[in-house]
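<given_protein>
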Amino acid sequence: MGIDPFEKRILFVTGKGGVGKTTVAAALAYAARDRGMNVCLVEVAPSPNMRMIFEREIPVYKEVEVDRDLTVLSIEPFRALHEYVGLQLKIGGAARLILNNRLLNYFLNTAPGWRELITVGKIWHLYDMKVKWSNRPRFDLIVVDSPATGHGLSFLKAPSVFMNIIKMGRMQGQTDDVQNMLTDPKISLLNVVTLPEEMPVNESITLLKTAKEELGIPTGITFVNSVYPPLFDEESQASYDELQKDGKAMERLKEVFPDRAKGLLTALESRQARVDQSEFYKNMVLDKIGPPIVSIPHLFPGRVDKEGVQKVAEIINRSIKEGV
């Protein structure tokens, strides 16, 4: 593969809505945990998917240990802003007094970009946290379930935008720290999740191109999710292909199974079409984006729970070890 994502400190995971982004983020967290790492899984917007995976409520802005060495934190921008102002002023009450000002609240509700900046700033804070009485990081790895592709670029772009606005003072230095975190290949990787379908693949190509060329953000793995594996092995596939060409054999099949042959053949053709589509778009990802790529097979049934996520984690760890 050439990239071991678990050598980094922060893994951002994005992708078009509905591609399984949260599932892959959670699977990465479990894969790292299974390697002995202490992991924080961050969601930047409350999602029912996270609750479904862990089968419990994920309260806003409260660290929840959902499993051994695996903590989930759902970031809410206003709460993050309260914490930030409190840390700067060293007095929590003063922060509440300032931020409860109606005029300031009106400004915050209408001003663009600050939510993204304060959210990425909180991720930097998690990255910078140390274990008490030690210089060891509080978390070995932070996995960020980032916004979907469109909003995801705005999310990642926010620090560089504010760097051009804030030219002096403490906040300039802090914004520089956040931007350096995003662009340092020793710290962060942006990973994208796609389905083997035209629109998600095209959006992934555009996002990664923009991230690399315009934002300078290092990119990692492309996860092609819900790939339909071949129904037959090579020998069986050859036999099935011969059967389809043999008109007499097909007629005989319909005679032997008069009520089922048509449905069976239709199901086989439909499944084969999904297999061919998966292969086509996997090759397109390889051609347009390039390696490393991890293929995640379609899970039956489609609903993903904690057990399903752990299966995906095993696939990820195996792929990385095999260098695929």
User: Anything to note?
Assistant: Residues 221 and 292 are 5 Å apart (CA to CA). Residues 261-288 form the longest helix (28 residues).
